[in-house]
Write a structure and sequence with these properties.
It is built from 13 helices and five strands. The protein has 335 residues and is mainly alpha-helical. The model has no long low-confidence stretch (mean pLDDT 96). The protein binds tryptophanyl-5'AMP.
Length: 335
Amino acid sequence: MSEQEKPRVLSGIQPSGSMHLGNYLGAIRNWVDDQDKYNNYFMIADYHSLNTIRNGTEMRRNRKELVAMLLACGIDPERSVLFYQSELPEHTELAWIFTSLSPLGWLERMTQYKDKMSRLTETASISTGLLTYPALQAADILLYQADLVPVGADQRQHIEFTRDLAARFNNIFGETFVLPKAEIRKEVANVPSLTNPAKKMSKSNPDGNGRIDLLDQPNVIKKKFKRATTDSFRDVVFSDDPERAGLLNILSIYKAMTGKDEATIEAEFVGKGYGDLKVAVGEATVAHLEPIQAEYKRIMADKGYIKEVMDDGADRARRIARKTLRKVRRKIGME
Ligand code: TYM
């Protein structure tokens, strides 16, 4: 199948600090594994992060480190287009058009927005970008006429918003956009926090013990798993009892890290306890992350490489983005 005939994929990740195991298992590993299957566009969502990062030095560092980490995880610039969102003004231009077409009610219904609002008490300090954020995300996706958007479960609602908005635009101005679908892999679509399994593993949670950062040192990784919340049962089994969500989380990570099936894992721990499982998952994670960490170091030391990759990515992304935006401007009567 030629590149053009393959389904087109777009996805993004914010440069909001070190990447964690939730990002990796929920999204990035799927991007990497499916590179041959799809025609891939992957984006550093730096404008999305402006809602939270207001320090130029930090932003610059985070962007670069995130690119190095994506490459270290196996994103191959030959097979995938990797670019910074902010280098293509097409994103913000289409985002304005979409902001103008987004019913306020749709935006106010977004659970991520509602969650953040409920945690912030001082409304004067809440940026409008937190509300209009899905319009920018819709622009990211629709500019590339993406068929599929591989993400973790927390992004499902934003992709549905994108579909609804694309359909609305097509209805008002005539057929323009492909309606994208979220691609969510069931098993690790929602990696919970190690310390509070009712919450997702996240960068914004100040409790660092709940998350494994991909750059964590081996002893830190092992310690975090040792401290992970479990329950007062004893047997090591895959169970969907909500009381055992902590155990299921550790087992699911172990499964993802080793590639073993559930029966094999359960058999491995017959007669053993949670302590043994925690040691095993710590070691498996360290072993899995070791080559990624080594590759990350190598890429960070290679001064010109990241810029080269990103300049090339921006050029390739621009070709598609320009074409779509031109079509949109004609439809809305701006050309
Ligand atoms: P972000 O940066 O929060 O997360 C990047 C990817 O990681 C997934 N993820 C998780 N998956 C499973 N378990 C978790 N605990 C977990 N935490 C994060 C996310 O689902 C996501 O796939 N708005 C997006 C970035 C974005 C984007 C886009 C995504 C901007 N434009 C266009 C897709 C298409 C975000 O903040 O992801």
